């Protein structure tokens, strides 16, 4: 697997990363043994970047990764952890905590749950509106000096916050949604990360399965599945969005590849500074996702794909409105 250096200071990560969130309930029930087999399959295929958040299943996701990594070389994985999301016992969301004292607290629990003595990339999941980003990043930088964290990342923040953070310490990547149907970063955020030498680790590349070619209208999302309340999956929007998928399918079939592979290849081809993190939670999905590495897109393919799915063609926002309002990246 080809590797790329994130940011100017590393680490070196595989050209495709594995996002483990869906293995801990964010997309409905998942199978523990299959999840672990998927993580093993990814590592064995050369995928070293594993992404998690301490709030995914309230620690469940970190413990799962910890179990999967048992008996393996620690250096074989680049573990990216988001922190700061505050939860309640029924899975509700209560905002974000980016205070320096909270950073150290979150990190201590994360190290225990993962069973490791350092985190490769540590990042606040969202900007805490009550805490200057300088303070949050400064606290992570203290943990870098102490040896508990190797690199600092950001997540879903806008250009001004990226600049402020990068003035405090080296930032290796910004994790943010980027796909054929979520292209908001192209205007201000991507030029800023490029100017500052910060990579993008792109999530939602399949728009949570919507543009994977496997989602069908009428497939019900169970309680707790993000897609049950994601605007793009709701009646009135899903029909229009699936028309876009069918247009992509025509292009995919002409190239004898799958829709998901086209969607991933499109993001990956946007630059060496963009690494897609794919949310596979089964080995068959992982295999399909990794197959995207063999898809070569010609300038004509790019043109056809972007004609099939023009910028802003999606019906519905990428998050429900009340969530978008709190996202620094949307300001
Ligand atoms: N920084 C942030 O704010 C943030 C937010 C969200 C996610 N993330 C991270 O990014 C990772 C990926 O994001 P995402 O979950 O939105 O990912 P995604 O890759 O857009 O969607 C993943 C979903 O697509 C479906 N799918 C269909 N075919 C697939 C294939 N070949 N390979 C993979 N998935 C396929 C699967 O649903 P079924 O299994 O139901 O078919 C899967 O759960 C997450 O795991 C998490 O680590 C970060």
TrEMBL record:
Residues annotated as domain NADP-dependent oxidoreductase: 16-308
Species in which this protein is naturally found: Rhizobium laguerreae
One Pfam family, short name: Aldo_ket_red
GO molecular function: pyridoxine 4-dehydrogenase (NADP+) activity
PANTHER family named among the record's database cross-references: AFLATOXIN B1 ALDEHYDE REDUCTASE (PTHR43625), ALDO-KETO REDUCTASE YAKC [NADP(+)] (PTHR43625:SF40)
Keywords tagged on the record: Oxidoreductase
Domain of life assignment: Bacteria
EC number: 1.1.1.65
Full protein name: Pyridoxine 4-dehydrogenase
Enzyme class of the recorded protein, top EC level: oxidoreductase
Gene3D superfamilies: NADP-dependent oxidoreductase domain
